[in-house]
Write a structure and sequence with these properties.
alpha+beta
Length: 226
Amino acid sequence: MLKFYFNGSPNPTKVALYLEESGLPFEPVKIDTRKGEQFTPEFLKINPNGKVPAIDDGGTIVFDSNAILLYLAEKTGKFLPSNRAELLSWLMFVASGVGPFSGQAVHFKHFAPKDQNHDYAHNRYQYETDRHYKVLDSRLEGRRYMVGDSYSIVDMALWGWARMVPFKLGDDAFARYPNVKRLFDEISARPAAARAIALKDKFTFKAEMDDEARANMFKHMTTKVA
């Protein structure tokens, strides 16, 4: 049985979507990052980087959500576009651009200490996140899906982060990306998407962003490197 190490954040949720869409049997394993469970010796053997998601597929370990999507698609042959060049280009665009800039946009908008001036960093990540979504919106102009004519892992990767657009960029931000919103709504209406989102509700995760959670989520706040 494939073990899926997860929480309810965007990267694990897009892998949960693939697992639900493909019908692969899996055992969900809760990793409560606000409690620091990502740093246990047991989990660090699965992902030395101490982040979710990760999978253990009968002894084959894969971490990083986009690597997992590609691994599972190649394993099953499902939701895998035939144009490999476009697949890799857009999957890596999400992996190296949309995800990291979105994460930083969320951090500086919601979690950076309010007693410090983060205007430069906040504006940079808001700008870059908006720019990435404009690139995606342009790509989807006149296209139903990101790559080829069918729903694929690239759309799933985008959906995982698109769920957070209002949280990252403001309540009215989706209006700036109508094509992304159209694809997001289409995927969100799929039964597998509802199951993927609900997976976290089968477990109890720490909800409070208290001192313990901040220490586990944002270790740079207590450790000065430079």
